[in-house]
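pinned: reference chain
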Amino acid sequence: MVSESLLGNRKVSRLFFRLVQGPARTAPLARRCGLRAEEAERLLERMARGGLTRRVGRGPWEVDWERFVPIFVRSAMNIYAVALPWRYLDPAAIERDPQGFVEAATARAGRELARIKVRLAANDLFCAMLRAFFEVLVGEMAAPEDYLEDLRLSDAIDEFEYSLLKLYPLRRRRLGQGPAARELRRLLGGWYRSVQAFDTPCGAAMRVAFESLAGR
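pinned: its C-alpha cells
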C-alpha cells in the first residue's frame, strides 16, 4: 500500500504528473523534472513498488492506472469515511448502549466503505473519468510554471473530494444511461449525500451562525 509520505512527496508527484502526459524513459523524464537520473530511477522504483508506475522490461516508465485507481479511491474519501457512520444513527441504540453503538456504527460503515471503494475502482467509467481528471489537471498546470512543482499527488486527491461536492449536482446527468453510468451515479450520489449531511464542529458552528442572522 502506498504510504502518505509517497503521495505527499513533491518529487514523486512531479514524476507522476509528467508520466500522465505519456510514457518516458528515466533520463529524459529526470531532465524534465529537474532531477538527477539516479535519484529519478530510485523514486520510480519506489513508485512501482507502491503501485503508481510500471515498466515492462527496460522500456519506458508509465502510470500504472490499474493499480493506481484503487489507491486513489482509498485516499480520496477523507470526509466520507468520517461522515458515513452517521448514516446508521439510531437514537434508541445510543441511549441503550452508547459505546456499543459507536463501535457497531463504525464497523458497519467500514464494511460499507470497503464495498464502495471496490465497486468504484472496478467501474470503467470512473476509471476513465479519473484518468481524464489527471490529464486535464496536468494540461492546466502547463500554464503557471511553478504550479507543477508545488502541487503534490495528495493535494490533487484531496481536491477531488472537494470538487465532487461542488460539481456532482450539476454534472450527474451527463454520466449517461448505461449500467456503468447508473452504478457510478449511485456511488457518487451516496458519497455526495453523506458528506452533505455531515456536520463537522466548524460546519455546525457556521450553520448556527447563519441561523442567528435570521432574527436581525
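why pinned: The chain is about 75% helix and 5% strand. The beta strands are 53-55, 61-63.
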